[in-house]
Amino acid sequence: MIAESGHYALVLAFGLALIQSTVPILGARWGEYSLMNVARSTAVAQLLFVAASFAALVTLHVSSDFSVVNVVENSHSMKPLIYKITGVWGNHEGSMLLWVSILALFGGLVAIFGNNLPISLRAHVLAVQAWIASAFYLFILATSNPFLRIANPPIEGQDLNPVLQDIGLAVHPPMLYLGYVGFSISFSFAIAALIEGRIDAAWARWVRPWTLIAWIFLTTGIAMGSYWAYYSLGWGGWWFWDPVENASLMPWLAGTALLHSLVVMEKRNALKVWTILLSILTFSLSLLGTFLVRSGVLTSVHAFANDPRRGVFILLILCVFIGGSLSLYAFRASSLKQGGLFAPISREGALVLNNLLLTTACATVFVGTLYPLALEVMTGEKISVGAPFFNLTFGPLFVPLLIALPFGPMLAWKRGDLLGAAQRLIAAGIVALIVLAFVLAWSFGGSTLAPLAIALAMFVIAGAVIDITERVGMFRLPLGVTIRRARGLPRSAWGTMFAHAGVGIALIGIVCETSWNSENIRTMRAGDVTNIAGYSLKLESLTPRQGPNYREMAAKFSVLVDGRVIDTMTPSKRNFTTRNATTTEAALLSRGATQLYISLGDIGTDGSITVRIYHKPFVLFIWFGPVLMAFGGALSLSDRRLRVGAPKPAKAVRELQPAE
Amino acid sequence: MTRKQRRLTIIGGSLAVLAVAAALVLNAMRDSILFFSTPKMVAEKHIQPGKRFRLGGLVQPGSLVRGDNLKVTFEVSDGSSELPVSYQGILPDLFREGQGVVAEGALDGSGVFRADTVLAKHDENYMPKDVADALKKQGHWKDEYEAKAKGGARMDGNAASATPGGQGAMR
Fold it and tell me: Measured between CA atoms, how close is A575 to chain B, in angstroms?
């Protein structure tokens, strides 16, 4: 019964989406408020029905109802509860249901919190949102129904892929989807603006919080996924330039650009046409990502499904939405009035440069990801484009971006003073040079590229900090005034500082990990000792253990520094009997931001075991950086200026704020 | 500056950045792309020693020999020809004889493929797409794979694992 109810709820949500995609548009055409308001109730109802459908699938998985194909293929009665729940989206059908649920969630949120939107804009936005939703409901119902029953229910399920039985699956896909799908809101706003032929600074103020929310989730989602791959794959890699990772990186790059161009639009009413285009592109890249991951076109581990019908269906959705929105853009963009003028050297100019470099970097990732596919389709020749390609293209484009980054916030709107900004950044330059000298001396004889990159990262961090100290007048003004100013500073200014510093911190982590990572691969027996980067590791024992749905061999290591035991590490090798699959559970030991990493290889018949030991200096910075960026985003989001429905700040407050 | 000049500056700047990006991409395309070959293609094409490529096929049953210091040798087969492969390091969890494998590296002077990366992307009834395609083309596609593939066991999130410097992520 539950499966049928879930299926039925999904069909009803599809029906509601169809109503939502047509009635409000007609209402806006005819100027009928009652018809336009239909969008609101249908969006909320749609959310309720999808939520019910999703809850039904979760219930089926939790109760191990093996009369449902999806549960049989991806669950097992012995599986721990948390993986029974996360297993819902650890497969194609379930993850598509999660996708539409999140889409409905965003639609519902716009309906609930969009009280201050002009009614026709809200009607259009929700209608566009419903177009996307209808397409994906149809996709699920026609090709990927998660509620299919099986004729002869087996007694036991086939279990979830062991690699996915990890807490990472609980966090990473929902986060990533909140990011991916969140960009649908800026897309819907852009299409609504094009349909209405009207766009202004207020539009940017409405779109920005939604874009920011999506961006925060996408940032943490990508970082979380990277950390998951790092600890679970057993050899300490954290980014592979795998097409599926690129699929999430591309919307992130475009979304980051969008976030910045929205600032220009909100403050200066400029770059309207570009911002609209960027909104369309960002969500198109999200759709492309969905296509790449869900259609099985990739020779990638991520290519979940291998059913061409699905691929063709998503490709159709992709073509209709991207083609349709770009044609609409081509027809209507000229009708949008151009706004604010600015000199090339100005805050706007800096943000244009940011957009230019980010979108170009995004384009190189796009080429590197799709070129092999295109080549295979056209010539049948198979190639692989890996890290070297992206290091040679993506890297050089990020260098000017990072150099320019600290200058941006220091330039004034309209016409900036580059020399003045440079003078204020002298301190940051000095910090960078000192760090450069230190690192060069320390890594004498090594590559000079790494110290330079670290100096660049320090320049970015110092630049971000200096920007804030300048604004609050630290060291120039009495402490009391500084504190008052710091309080009065808009939260978005603090957000900018944290987010920009986060970029520098991530860069430090990346450079340290890739340049000074040491590894030690060897065969060991109980009692053997090996050394890495000043640590001694002693293999104490090898013990077999029994888990809920696996057996494992755990190796206990003592970690010694100067002959003193400081900790123990217990990596293991798990064997999942149902799928006859083995996974490696690495053991991690954090010393500050540096980590020791042990994973196990083959276990010999004579009691020996191959182990991989890594010492990864400052590796945690790679993920601290994005976390800081997301924190900065959250701070900006809490800025009252951006809070949806917030009243205009009182005049007295505004006088305290320094000019931006 | 007039409006026109400003616009030209921005357009000029954009074009410059795009030109640089295009140059970078073309340059990287020339040097850092790996082609995929099966043992048969290697024999036919006379690939030069030292040129890096990806080799795919099935691990020939009975060919796996483990040496000292994590050295291993095995043969990769595509049904019609075999190529010996040598590798030093830990093989991925899913590496098994008779299963699909993709190795990255180059031929040495004696015709042995020296791999620096070995990828095994499969579970009990999946083989890498490159390998499957190549085998299909040569008519060595076993019906049982087909049957299994259709039998509901889709390739959802099949595990990849790799080696130092290799690739294969799971997300």
Answer: 10
